[in-house]
Amino acid sequence: MPPPHDRRRDNDQLPPMVPMAMHPLHITPSIPAAPPVAPAQADSDPSSDGESGEKDDDNEPLKKLLGSKKRNRMKDEIDALRKEVGSMTRHLEWLRVSQMHQSPAPLWADIAKQQAHELSRVMAENQHLRHTLEQHLDIAQEYIDTIIPKSVPPGDTVAAPALPIIMCL
């Protein structure tokens, strides 16, 4: 998800079609009223008439104020960015610390996994030993069945035990 657009930069440069007075963030500067110009002063300056000189005097504090506002806006933006860097740094540190705490937590999971592996190995070995033991029991039973007859004839008690022994030799 892309980060949201930061609107703070929009205040620095306005589109040329939007007059500053119409912008929603525009604050009309409070300029103290200029002292009235005495008629003698206005007549003494031959290079400019009184009305144009009055406008220049009015624009000069306005320019200083607007320049100051721009500096303040830039300063505020820098302060806001510093705060944001600080909060992101704290968040990054928190993520690193939480990641460190998660590393030892799976220790019990590793032990459980080893025990499960050991259990499956032991069960397989037990199954193999049981199968081998059953084979040995079957072989031993076959030997016993070949050596000792299952039923002895009633009249021949002496010859019967000797016969299987002779057959084995």
**Strand fraction:** under 5%
Radius of gyration in whole Å, from Cα? 52 Å
- Span between N and C termini? 89 Å
Average pLDDT rating:
71
- Main sheet properties: none
Runs in which pLDDT lies below 50 for 5 or more consecutive residues are 39-52
Order of helices and strands: HHHH
**Helix percent band:** 55-70%
Walk me through this protein's architecture.
Helix content is 65%, strand content 0%. It is mainly alpha-helical and 169 residues long. Among the domains are: 48-105; 106-149. The two termini are 89 Å apart. Residues 1-75 are annotated as: Disordered. Residues 39-50 have a biased composition (Low complexity).
What keyword list fits this structure?
single chain; 169 residues
Short description:
Residues 1-12 have a biased composition (Basic and acidic residues). Residues 1-75 are annotated as: Disordered. With 169 residues, the protein is mostly helical.
Strand and helix map with partners:
Layout: H1 39-44, H2 50-102, H3 107-147, H4 159-168
